[in-house]
Structures are given as C-alpha cells and as structure tokens.
C-alpha cells in the first residue's frame, strides 16, 4: 500500500493518517470541516490536495450514523480500490450499507480499540494504536484483497488485528467501552454540586474512575445512538447489582448483628466478583494479566526529576511495567507509583534509597 485517503480528520482519522504518513505513505485528507483537515495537514498527517485517481485505501473516520452516506459518496467518486470505516459500532452501519446497495466486495468494517478523552485533530497521536486491538468485521462478500488491505493498515498502525462478527463486536464494546463511559460520567456527575472541601480531597481513585468523563458529549451521543440497546442491556445488569449493593450497605448500618453480617457478605461478594472480572483484563501486549507490585517514590516538582528517576531505575536493572503519577494538592511534590515485577521490589527500593530518593512503605 502506497496511498490512502482519510475522510474525517478527528482524533481517530488524524491519528491513522499520522501513523501512515510516518511509514512513508502518501495520505490525502478530507473533512466536511476544511479547518479540521488543514489542522491535520499542519500536523504532518498528509495533504489536503485531492488525489489524482483512485488511492489504495480509503479510511472513513466519521460517526456511525454517517458511515453509509460517506461510503456511498466515496464509491460514487471512485476514490479508492478498497474501503474501510473506523466507527465504533458496526451492525447499524453494515445494515445501512447493504440497504443502500453499495459495493461490499471492496469494503470491510473495522474499529481500532483506542481513543482518548479529548477529541479533534489536535488530540491525535501517531502511536495511538500501538499494541491496541483493531477489530475487523468482514462479511461473506468481502474479498481477500480487501481483507489484506485492512490487515496491512492495522500492521502499519502497529495494532493487533482481531476478526469478529459485527453483532458480537457491538455487544463487546457495549460491555468494555460504551457502558464504562456512561458509568464514569455518572460518578463524575456526583461531583458537580459537591462541597468544595470534598472536591479537594479527591485522590487517584476518583481520578481513575472519572478520567474518561471528560469526553465530548456530542460525540458520545452519536456513538451511543448506534448501540443503545446493547448498552442499555449492560447498564440494566449494573443497575441490578447497584440495587443489591444499596440493600447490603443499608444492612451494614443496621442495629441487628445478623443483618450487619448479611450486609458485609453482600459487599464482599460484589467486590470479589469485581476482583475476578478485573483480573481477566489482558495484561501487557495482550498477554495474560500479570500481578505487579508498586514502589511509590516522592518526586519533587522540578524539571528533569522524572527523567532522573527513570534513569536510576534503569541503572538498577529494573524494568518499569507501568507508571502512575499522583499529584499532591497544594504542595510542590507528587508520588510516582512504579509497577515492577515482585522479584524486583527489594532491589529497586534499596537502590533508590541509596540514591537519596524517598520511597514510601
């Protein structure tokens, strides 16, 4: 593949364009908002100049409700040899494409499982898809060359291809993406009118849970409109668990010991189910989840401190598997939580303390 067109220069489209341009492809950019396309061009994602003749692959990066309309326009213009879209819902667009009688031999649905709480071309990153799953949803009509073009796109973006049925994909993303977005927003909504004193107590737990609540509401309305039934099914089950949890919490506050004991068992049960579910989330590079231990280091708010810390961890021969920075409210310090293999904890702690770092027990 040497040439591509990206139609829709938001976060996902521009990120794909940046990744392809970095691999030497000629990428043409289109958007209903010319300013968005020019912004993506200024970032090095490609050119807003029209392609001369069909390109190899057209990547349609628009909301699910617009995929059919945009694909029809692209095929009418003979824009590319092969076509894919990167919308986060597949069944609805697929049905619309079939109903419009479009060419489904040279089209394949796809969905990169990557994103950010920010949107638009300025939020784009060439490495957004590195190591992330990228779902492909071929139909019986999809020919081999089209599938191969999509697989090449995934490889060029550094992602991992996963072939799924469109309906199964939509049920899956309802569970692991769409419902969590709404739950995050619901938790964050509790903070809207909270007392300022309570807000100032916010720690890493509430920051983790509410991070994606900063997402663009209009964008998510488009997404959820295309998968509303599946998301409602998931949230209905969550609502059932919430109801049982509320009953258990009320029991914990009761005067009768047996009732309190039943409440404690109810809370323990739901948290143990949470432990089991969380442990199933794939670990590094999609491998089975690995349990790491955390070394927490106090970090001053000066330029170069984080780099110096990472350098000394490397000198100690320890690999950092993950890192989390927790800022201290009102103070010029923070805490860096380094996730490392359990066998490395003692060695790393001793090395850092010997180097003058304050390591929290």
Automatic annotation (TrEMBL):
<dbReference type="InterPro" id="IPR002912">
    <property type="entry name" value="ACT_dom"/>
</dbReference>
<protein>
    <recommendedName>
        <fullName>Prephenate dehydrogenase</fullName>
        <ecNumber>1.3.1.12</ecNumber>
    </recommendedName>
</protein>
<keyword id="KW-0520">NAD</keyword>
<keyword id="KW-0057">Aromatic amino acid biosynthesis</keyword>
<dbReference type="GO" id="GO:0004665">
    <property type="term" value="F:prephenate dehydrogenase (NADP+) activity"/>
</dbReference>
<dbReference type="InterPro" id="IPR045865">
    <property type="entry name" value="ACT-like_dom_sf"/>
</dbReference>
<keyword id="KW-0827">Tyrosine biosynthesis</keyword>
<comment type="pathway">
    <text>Amino-acid biosynthesis; L-tyrosine biosynthesis; (4-hydroxyphenyl)pyruvate from prephenate (NAD(+) route): step 1/1.</text>
</comment>
<dbReference type="InterPro" id="IPR036291">
    <property type="entry name" value="NAD(P)-bd_dom_sf"/>
</dbReference>
<dbReference type="InterPro" id="IPR050812">
    <property type="entry name" value="Preph/Arog_dehydrog"/>
</dbReference>
<dbReference type="Pfam" id="PF02153">
    <property type="entry name" value="PDH_N"/>
</dbReference>
<keyword id="KW-0028">Amino-acid biosynthesis</keyword>
<dbReference type="GO" id="GO:0070403">
    <property type="term" value="F:NAD+ binding"/>
</dbReference>
<dbReference type="InterPro" id="IPR046826">
    <property type="entry name" value="PDH_N"/>
</dbReference>
<dbReference type="InterPro" id="IPR008927">
    <property type="entry name" value="6-PGluconate_DH-like_C_sf"/>
</dbReference>
<keyword id="KW-0732">Signal</keyword>
<feature type="domain" description="Prephenate/arogenate dehydrogenase">
    <location>
        <begin position="1"/>
        <end position="283"/>
    </location>
</feature>
<feature type="signal peptide">
    <location>
        <begin position="1"/>
        <end position="21"/>
    </location>
</feature>
<feature type="domain" description="ACT">
    <location>
        <begin position="294"/>
        <end position="361"/>
    </location>
</feature>
<dbReference type="Pfam" id="PF20463">
    <property type="entry name" value="PDH_C"/>
</dbReference>
<dbReference type="GO" id="GO:0008977">
    <property type="term" value="F:prephenate dehydrogenase (NAD+) activity"/>
</dbReference>
<keyword id="KW-0560">Oxidoreductase</keyword>
<dbReference type="InterPro" id="IPR046825">
    <property type="entry name" value="PDH_C"/>
</dbReference>
<comment type="similarity">
    <text>Belongs to the prephenate/arogenate dehydrogenase family.</text>
</comment>
<dbReference type="GO" id="GO:0006571">
    <property type="term" value="P:tyrosine biosynthetic process"/>
</dbReference>
<dbReference type="InterPro" id="IPR003099">
    <property type="entry name" value="Prephen_DH"/>
</dbReference>
